[in-house]
Amino acid sequence: MVLSVIFIAFQVVMALIAVYQFSISIFGLFKNKSRKHHAPQKSFAVLVAAHNEEKVVGALIENLKKMDYPEELYDIFVICDNCTDGTADISRSLGVHACERTNQLLRGKGYAIEWMLKELWAMPRQYDAIVMFDADNLVNPDFLQLMNNDLCEGHQVIQGYLDTKNPDDSWVTAAYGITYWYCNRLWQLSRTKLKMSNFLGGTGMCFDSALLKDMGWGATSLVEDLEFSMRCVQRDIYPVLNYDAKVYDEKPVTFKASARQRLRWMQGHFNVARNYFFPLLWASIKERNFVKFDSAIYTISVYNTLFGFILTMIIWVDIAIPSPNYLDSLYNYLPWWTIVIAVAASVIQFPLALMLEGVKSWKMYAHLLTLPFFLISWWPITFYAFFTQNNKTWSHTQHTRVVRIEEVQSK
């Protein structure tokens, strides 16, 4: 009886979180109106984080040098972090700043950004804002103009629309693409419309320089983007999403590489949950601040995945090994139609996101059949991440897919 009560209690909490997120996602069904246009006036330091990216960094630099923005208002800095290949040489040959950093103890993107910002603050020229990309990215030519518009409107932290540049490469990259479209539309946009905080995605980010100088970077976990998001929310600074500012990210082609990347994300997510959940939850109660409550709930989404896996395993074992001590479940107390609605809502959200985002490729819709395998694989990855969350060793995701922005836009 005690075990059944505990089991049902966990199911109730997870169900409430699922209903909460579904309720918020409804607000993402309709797009926002376009934001106000401002003449180019903000200056940008464009930072490109790179570790042994000689195969792809050239395509991004060429892309960035053709931005629809006055060239005198932005400079490009490639952070060559512990590189042992030709990343720095290629960057210099293309006429941008190659900033080489060597530190085998403090490895990872967060440390590289922190080092680069200190270098920037010491330079003669100072910039109004900092934009960050990864070396494997591509970006729409109007990105800086859109960031300029938001900065002129008073926003201090801005996240671009994260897309995938290689969704057709494999069933794994297709799964990334579908989940990104879903998150952009039904997680990020819905929070934008509710005037809640958006969450940074690690690339395609823009920061007001004065804010960064005041706060410092201070985000050196395996998920520096999520960590900095929570630091902002604590200070009542809410990152916003610019839905039109598109960034294309290269995703791992193989399941093994994908699992390694997602393990790093989950390990870092556990760390952020441990450090920020209770402070944000307490602040939300004390200040009656719903945005901080939402951010607190987001930090523990990793635990929702973990407990979902554990509870599902318990149910399967209980079914496989019948015994007189039958483990009770929440499903036994719900009308059948509530379960049907819950399943239908879970199934429809991904094809709905594809339709809302205007995806026309029949292959992407066909990959909805393989998507469940990708989603279920988060369970064992998260379970393993829980027991290895203190492993803060950064692992590099190798990028080899050389694509030009013209190719992405033509699809």
Class from secondary-structure proportions: alpha/beta
Strand content: 5-15%
Q: Summarize the helix and strand pattern as letters.
A: HEHEHEHEEHEHEHHEHHHHHHH
Number of contiguous helices: 15
Report on the architecture of this protein.
This protein is α/β, with parallel strands linked by helices and 411 residues long. It folds into two domains: 2-28 and 273-387, no CATH class; 44-171 and 197-255, Alpha-Beta Complex (Spore Coat Polysaccharide Biosynthesis Protein SpsA, Chain A), CATH 3.90.550. The protein is built from 15 helices and eight strands. Helix 3 links the parallel strand 2 and strand 3 (97-101). It starts with a helix and ends with a helix.
Please specify the SSE layout and strand pairing.
Blueprint lengths: L1 H24 L18 E7 L6 H8 L9 E8 L5 H7 L3 E5 L7 H13 L7 E6 L3 E2 L3 H10 L4 E8 L6 H23 L11 E4 H7 L8 H11 L5 E10 L5 H33 L2 H10 L1 H20 L15 H21 L5 H5 L4 H17 L17 H5 L2
Parallel strand pairs: 1-2, 1-4, 2-3, 6-8
Antiparallel strand pairs: 4-7, 5-8, 6-7
